[in-house]
Design goal:
single chain; 254 residues; mainly alpha; Ferritin
Length: 254
């Protein structure tokens, strides 16, 4: 196990917590999707994300993070998840847009890691993510064609928040600390460009426009590098309780 550069533990923690919240948000809709196919897909994705979390947690433990803390024994404001996952979605369209953008952003962050400790792991997780992201794109394309007016404001909000999660708009290869530290091979600018371009191409030819997506924020001064956000939003205590299984902890399998 190699010692990671400054900021890398928080970087991986953000990926891990985002995947943890993704598993929860997928689970919320496992029996509420528009079709059995969607329900099964959500259940499978939730299970995949839990598996990814377990693998990433082992690496974080080796870097000094406490197991109980990693598993959720902490305050809501100590979670590092993407802000777009803070609250439960009220509609299927909102659910799909939020998990799609968060899942892809977490994958982009993970795929950029070049540290030796992640050799093989990124490729393995990527095999699962391929199916998640392909499914999201297919469903979003259908929604863009059939319900563009409903999807438009939701995608604008989700994508704006997710770009912030990837990092400051000015963090290029010369200024991104983790690129300079040799932990990743792509800067926040490159990741943000890749994410925006993906959805720009996905919605090309539909009535969904990304013209009003906030692309110039945040600045490094206003960005919280630990939580990868600018606002003070948090997940609810009830979500923390659900993640930790506090109500039925006595039945947990050791």
């Amino acid at each position: 196990m190699n010692e990671w550069p400054e900021g890398a533990v928080d970087y991986v923690q953000a990926i891990t917590d985002t995947k943890l919240l993704l598993s929860h948000r997928y689970a919320e809709w496992m029996l509420a999707g528009p079709s059995l196919e969607d329900d099964i897909g959500g259940a499978s994705a939730a299970q995949d994300e839990v598996g990814h979390v377990r693998q990433l947690v082992r690496l974080l433990e080796q870097q000094g993070r406490e197991t109980d803390w990693l598993e959720g024994d902490r305050e809501p404001n100590e979670f590092r998840n993407a802000a777009v996952l803070d609250t439960a979605s009220e509609t299927w369209v909102e659910h799909l847009a939020t998990v799609a953008t968060a899942d892809r952003a977490a994958w982009y962050l993970l795929d950029s890691i070049t540290a030796e400790d992640f050799t093989g792991l990124v490729e393995k997780i990527g095999q699962d993510e391929y199916f998640h992201l392909e499914y999201h794109d297919a469903r979003l394309t259908t929604l863009a064609r059939n319900r563009p007016d409903e999807l438009q404001p939701i995608v604008e909000d989700a994508l704006s928040k997710t770009l912030v999660f990837l990092g400051p708009a000015s963090y290029d290869s010369d200024s991104d600390p983790l690129v300079q530290g040799g932990f990743v091979d792509r800067s926040a600018v490159e990741l943000r460009t890749a994410l925006f371009s993906h959805y720009e191409n996905l919605f090309d030819g539909t009535d969904v426009s990304l013209d009003d997506v906030t692309r110039e924020a945040p600045s490094p001064d206003e960005w919280d590098a630990t939580r990868r956000r600018v606002e003070n939003g948090v997940i609810s205590q009830s979500v923390v309780d659900s993640l930790t299984g506090v109500q039925n902890k006595e039945f947990a399998v050791e």
